[in-house]
Predict the structure.
Amino acid sequence: MPEAKDAPPILILAEPLIQAGLERLLEESFQLKAASDPDKGAIALVIWSISAGMPAATLERELAQLRDRWHPAPLLLLLPAESDLPSSWLLQLPAEGLLQQAEPQEIRAAVDTLLTGGRVVELRPLRGIEQPEQSREALGLGQWLLRSGLAQIEAEALRCRRWLDLQPVGLNALLLAGRLRELALAKRLLLWLWGPISMAFPSEAPLQRPEPQAVVGITLRERTAIGVWEAIQERLITAASTGLSNQSGQLMALEGLNTDHRRDLLLALLAQFDLLITRFRHEQLRGVALEERWLGQQPELRRLSMRAMAGEYVQLPLEGGLLPVAQSLSEASDLTAVDPELPAALPMLAALVCAQPILVDGRLLAPDEPQALLHLEALISNWLIRTAELISAEILASCSTWPDLRRYLLRSDLLPTRNLERLRNQLNSQQRWDSLFERPVQLYESRRLLYGLKQGAIVPIEHMEPRDRELQQLSWGQQLITLVLEGRDALAPQVQALFRRLGDLVVVVLTQVIGRAIGLVGRGILQGMGRSIGRGS
């Protein structure tokens, strides 16, 4: 433990009660300075405890003043749990440390990390921002139909997932998994029917919906390309080791592997990725040469990962003899396929190898920035899942002709030939549907589907980017789909205007013609009844 006179000085800015607690926590190892101390000298770290309810504009202004006053000292912000500031906005703050609901040991660890040049982000909001209720009149027809339908689908999917957690195996589990796939298909169909049309039926004022807060935990021991990759690798290894459930809405070949081999395959891919990135740093590759080398190494990387997952020394019987599993799988598999939905690898590689900035939501950020690191993690996890899918599809093909290999690598319910072939046929049908229909729609709408790892599950991430070059490379049949979408979007306002005119015409007929006629008839009846009553009296 360092002596107080040799320890780095730390400036604490907080309310009296919180400041007293921080001083008791840190006084044994650091020189503590208060804001009222006339002799502050050189400050190694500034700790600022933000009070609850501070407006965003005030927070930004005070933060800018602190950075100007104590530059280049890193800044650690302690946020209250009840803060209503969204996580996406907090991640953009120019602070090296962000801690929300921090425990004492976490504050101490964060101080040590920041003093060594690292970065720490731990956002744990007490509650998400509640979404305001929107009426049907405020949303418009298309948006109301879209959101109400999606809400019903999500509620049913949540109910199915809860039952699936209670009964993860058996016939009920198979029925629930099928129901989840049906709901995912219904969601995709609803988005296709009403997604673009909802833009033709806008509300009077644009909807301002606050983004819900998210839990974020990032620890960078050093703010370099190596430190960024180590932080991402640690997070992905933790996610892959806990066992992943499929919440992507897509049927995946990776689900066919049993839990242990699924985990081994993902960890082997991460290990090969690490070796390849390290080799690129030593070779000092840049630009196009870096991307070409990466693409050229993909088949070998997949082969080595498959062999590591299968086990180099495992042998299984086939037709009266013993065959090595790793070698047999490697020889029987075609690992040269290219997934067209994988984004360009150069931005990701340049950030991890050369520490070059990366473009995130229109902003050029250094790789150690929290938003850039999360974006890089999404790109790497997408590569991880999609590469594992290519390998798993080849494994399923080999298992169809090798019964003992099914028992070794696949789930127990895929041991029957019928179940395995049904899974393969469903995967092939899904691939054809995605290629012929889903991909043209995504290209036309400038969307790209990424697969991320979040809370022990594979989740979809919608990423927006220009894809005009890929759109021009589509076949004539795929381009016909985009022309149909363009025609539908072009005709939607005219159809809306036509229905409005017809509605106005119906209103005129009902009120001015039929309504008046009914009124005249009623008035005549009343007058006739009045005359009858007068004569009778």
Summary: The CA atoms of residues 381 and 452 lie 5 Å apart. The longest strand covers residues 447-454. Residues 128-139, 197-212 have pLDDT under 50 and may be disordered.
